[in-house]
Amino acid sequence: MLIQRLLSTIVWFIVIILAIKYKLVFGICFMFLVTLGLYEFFTMIEKKGFHIYKYFGIAIGTIIPLSILFRFELTKSWELLFIVLALVTLFILQFRRGDNSQAVIGISTTLFGILYVSWFFSFLIKIRYLPSGEGYLAAIILITKSTDIGAYLIGSRLGRHALIPRISPKKSVEGAIGGLLFSTLFALACRPFLGFSYLHLAILGLSLGVLAELGDLSESLIKRDCQVKDSGFLSPGIGGVLDLVDSLLFTVPAFYFYMSTVLK
């Protein structure tokens, strides 16, 4: 498992470098991850026996990042308007369905999948389009994924006290502390990308580390509820797309809004 995880990490490290450097590679990789991530999410929900609008959710969840990639803005907050229209369409689809059971679950779960997987992750595109966006993109990925690596390395060796066993039995308090330590250290190492003072970077790294671990735990909660071990089988030793990007789903929007404020 360790060797598989290491090989998958190396492969994704190369892919990330190419994606940061080349916009075309970034766009292709991003759309691949979003589409497959949406498919994984809705497939997990289906296993609970809920009636959801799987392919409608995948279609809408794919259009949102595409509109951001191509800078399409019908209005200033086009993606928000699109989400509202998606909700209206979901109600219309439910009206056409003969059975009223699970109506609230079907509509809310489909919309949640669009927001959680597609919209949250789409802020990665917005970070890429900021001034000096390549450096910011490298920084947020390094800080976030270093949290995962630190939690895994420290937790697997020194973990003694379970963090929240009912959600993720293998995650430990020691691993969580290790993840925060790594996120802080890597944030300091990202000074050439961000240009902040070391104190500023330490606070930012710690804050993003907390969000990364919350993102990881949130996806673990969803998997536990759906009674699956991994969201998919994209990366040996890691799991599916959601297992790969779960920590980024919380850090990326927060980082974008923070940097947008700082850059004003």
Structure description:
Helix 1 (2-21) packs across helix 2, helix 1 (2-21) runs antiparallel to helix 6 and helix 3 packs antiparallel against helix 4 (78-96). The chain has one domain. It contains 11 helices and no strands. The protein has helices spanning 2-21, 23-46, 54-69, 78-96, 103-128, 133-158, 173-189, 191-194, 198-226, 241-245, 248-262. The radius of gyration is 19 Å and the shape is globular. The chain starts with a helix and ends with a helix. With 264 residues, the protein is mainly α. The mean pLDDT is 91.
Q: What distinguishing features does this structure have?
A:
mainly alpha, single chain, 264 residues
Oligomer: single chain
The average pLDDT is 91
What are the segments in which pLDDT stays under 50 over at least 5 consecutive residues? none
From the spread of the alpha carbons, the general shape counts as globular
Query: Helix content range of the residues, please?
Result: over 70%
Q: How many strands?
A: 0
Strand % is under 5%
Measured distance between first and last alpha carbons: 45 Å
Number of helices: 11
- Please compute the radius of gyration using only Cα atoms: 19 Å
Order of helices and strands: HHHHHHHHHHH
Query: Based on helices, strands and strand pairing, what is the structural class?
Result: mainly alpha
Q: Tell me about the largest β-sheet.
A: none
Count of domains: 1
